[in-house]
């Protein structure tokens, strides 16, 4: 029997008629009848008896069905794989993000992605931007999310969304009436401060923003992640400057105070992909999910 014979035989066994098999396989009923006759001629015995518009399987057909069951299951899996590949959702979507994005932005977007791709898997990891780029170039991840603009001949950078920057302080640090006004560098002068590593994009921007302030902020701790900076603020060590995803995470109004900072340079979230290995189609849904999230 040919593959097409097996496919038609299985469709008739499922539906009980040539008309039902034609609908299942999206072909005409005469085409099914013709292929069935050819299949029976090939095997040398009848597969079905015609009775009142129905096709009743012969004992030989029932025995053949037992042998073909594993094949039918494999064929169904192949169809699912083809369908998933066409939609870009078969292979796990490998996402790497900087810690602040991985902890405070990506989870909500990934939740939407999982709802839209229930049969697919997502792999999410957190690391610093330098490691993200290495992973992309080594094809260890499909897409990277960072707040640092990247210029590399083998990588494609796409703006995903804006990212406001906030100064955060322990609860009751500032008078309530100041919380709605952007903070100025002079208000941080001499204050206990949690610094972000100046090798990061935001760290360099904040360092430039505070340049010339006298006295300079009293740096107590220097960290590499915004999430850690926030934890130190909650421990009442001092003020920190973080992205708004970190600032607004959890019960921010009870744990910390926040005030917007107007930095001279725009801050955004970027998606980075490998130019020679495009990300799966489902990555586009993830980016749209991020854009759809409320600020």
Automatic annotation (TrEMBL):
Keywords, comma-separated and alphabetical: DNA-binding, Transcription, Transcription regulation
Entry's Gene Ontology molecular function annotations: DNA-binding transcription factor activity; sequence-specific DNA binding
Stored Gene3D superfamilies: Periplasmic binding protein-like II, Winged helix-like DNA-binding domain superfamily/Winged helix DNA-binding domain
SUPFAM superfamilies: Periplasmic binding protein-like II, Winged helix' DNA-binding domain
Domain (HTH lysR-type) ranges: 1-58
Domain of life of the native organism: Bacteria
GO BP terms: lysine biosynthetic process via diaminopimelate; positive regulation of gene expression
Keyword Transcription: yes
InterPro entries associated with the record: LysR_HTH_N, LysR_subst-bd, WH-like_DNA-bd_sf, WH_DNA-bd_sf
Family that this chain belongs to: Belongs to the LysR transcriptional regulatory family.
Listed name of the protein: Transcription regulator protein
Organism in which the protein naturally occurs: Herbaspirillum seropedicae (strain SmR1)
Source species taxonomy: Bacteria, Pseudomonadati, Pseudomonadota, Betaproteobacteria, Burkholderiales
